[in-house]
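Thread amino acids onto this structure.
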């Protein structure tokens, strides 16, 4: 029977002691001690590898040891025994090894034990074989599963919104054009969809249509931004989770966002203890304690106007201005969550001029019912709002912002036929993975990152 290494190394794995079985995987290290060889094999199911003890008792020994090297793939058959070593509970006494794919030790790029993340980005096809990228991959998987659990348990419907779109959800440019027009055939004037189309920046507007029928929905899909941001928190292609709730105001929205973040972080702490210990030891000291605090303590809630006052009081030298009316920069967001409150902060009621057209106007005439959740190290982790459900107010806003009213005709109809107060938010999934793992650069928490100048692999 084939066994995954994670299950062998778990408590249930103890039942395999004395049993025969086989494992598949990639060799991490080989130590030939003449009477025995110790082979570490990893199959991606866990951070830890399984130790194989291969006794020098057959003709096979010399041939296999010549063939076997770091990176090669093998099938090992044998008996599981209690490990003598202190690092693991179980190991395999090998009776037979089959080398499935050899690996040239001279050229294999992962020969060394440690590599910089910059270097690993140049071998994105091989980097999941490293401890750190393997751990990131398992935590990313857990976060995505926990996301579905959270919303499904609460009766939200998962809906798939289009990737190709003609409308600009954020009303702020920065989109990738999608076209079949061939620049070599300028006489050909009809584009595939008969109008300019783009890769979506957000599934929200389509999501709203479904919330205004199904009550509670969420999307979880890729989104695209053509902004030229070479930062550790921006990608040109990233994944976003966008819940949308009908009959819900900004307070309900804040509550949902806080519960969601607590739920998924707790899920990772509960289900990925080995990977989290790895991050705590090698990536960000104290991250487990920091995340436990996120789960256990209420988030801070402050309005934008109050936040500006806090920034003024701080007497800190910031690079960017922070007077009422300007958009907050990452340095301000991080000051608030990292230094001042030392926990996630929900910032609400931003000036209307710095936020998207669809956000609901507050009675003060100056602010909108917006919210951002700011977290230590990252800054903005998610952003959302109550949506403008009043038809005439929304129409005025669209004209005022110089947007094309015609292209939003269906979005406006949602306000004409059975309009309801509704709210939602968008979580940057990669920022969530960064927040949960402590990884410094967003390019290292998505399998194949897309950023200016890079679409390799
Ligand atoms: O704040 P944003 O632009 O909000 C929206 O798109 C809304 N339609 C969401 C909604 O209300 N349904 O983006 C949401 C989140 C940000 O808070 C950030 O975490 C992430 O998406 N994000 C990015 N992540 C990686 N790379 C980028 N270029 C990102 N731009 C935004
Ligand atoms: Mg935002």
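Threaded sequence (457 positions):
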């Amino acid at each position: 029977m084939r066994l995954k290494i994670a299950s062998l190394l778990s408590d249930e794995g103890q039942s395999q002691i004395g049993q025969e079985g086989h494992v598949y995987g990639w060799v991490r290290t080989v130590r030939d001690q003449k009477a025995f060889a110790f082979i570490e094999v990893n199959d991606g199911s866990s951070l830890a590898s399984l130790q194989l003890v291969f006794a020098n008792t057959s003709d096979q020994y010399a041939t296999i040891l010549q063939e076997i090297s770091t990176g090669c793939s093998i099938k090992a058959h044998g008996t599981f025994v209690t490990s003598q070593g202190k690092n693991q509970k179980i190991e395999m006494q090998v009776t037979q090894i089959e080398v499935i794919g050899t690996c040239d030790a001279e050229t294999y790029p992962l020969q060394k034990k440690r590599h910089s993340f910059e270097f690993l980005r140049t071998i994105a096809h091989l980097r999941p074989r490293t401890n750190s990228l393997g751990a990131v991959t398992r935590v990313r998987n857990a976060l995505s599963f926990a996301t579905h659990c959270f919303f499904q348990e609460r009766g939200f419907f998962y809906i798939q919104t289009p990737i190709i779109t003609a409308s600009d959800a954020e009303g702020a440019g920065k989109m990738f054009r999608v076209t079949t027009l061939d620049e070599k055939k300028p006489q050909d004037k009809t584009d595939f969809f008969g109008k300019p189309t783009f890769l979506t920046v957000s599934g929200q507007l389509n999501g709203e249509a479904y919330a205004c029928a199904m009550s509670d929905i969420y999307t979880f899909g890729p989104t695209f931004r053509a902004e030229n941001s070479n930062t550790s928190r921006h990608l040109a292609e990233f994944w976003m989770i966008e819940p949308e709730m009908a009959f819900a105001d900004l307070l309900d929205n804040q509550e949902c966002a806080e519960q969601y973040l607590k739920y998924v972080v707790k899920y990772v702490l509960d289900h990925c203890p080995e990977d989290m210990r790895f991050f705590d030891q090698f990536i960000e000291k104290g991250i487990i304690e920091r995340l436990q605090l996120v789960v256990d303590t209420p988030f801070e809630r402050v309005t934008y106007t109050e936040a500006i006052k806090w920034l003024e009081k701080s007497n800190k030298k910031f690079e960017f201005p922070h007077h009422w009316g300007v958009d907050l920069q990452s340095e301000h967001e991080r000051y608030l969550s990292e230094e001042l409150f030392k926990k996630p902060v929900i910032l609400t009621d931003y000036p209307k001029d710095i936020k998207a057209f669809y956000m609901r106007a507050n009675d003060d005439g100056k602010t909108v019912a917006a919210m951002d959740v700011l977290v230590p190290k990252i800054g903005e982790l998610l952003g959302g709002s109550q949506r403008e459900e009043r038809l005439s107010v929304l129409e005025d806003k669209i004209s005022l912002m110089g947007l094309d009213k015609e292209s939003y005709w269906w979005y406006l109809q949602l306000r004409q036929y059975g309009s309801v107060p509704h709210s939602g938010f968008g979580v940057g999934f990669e920022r969530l993975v960064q927040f949960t793992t402590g990884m410094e650069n967003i390019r290292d928490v998505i399998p194949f990152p897309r950023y200016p100048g890079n679409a390799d692999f």
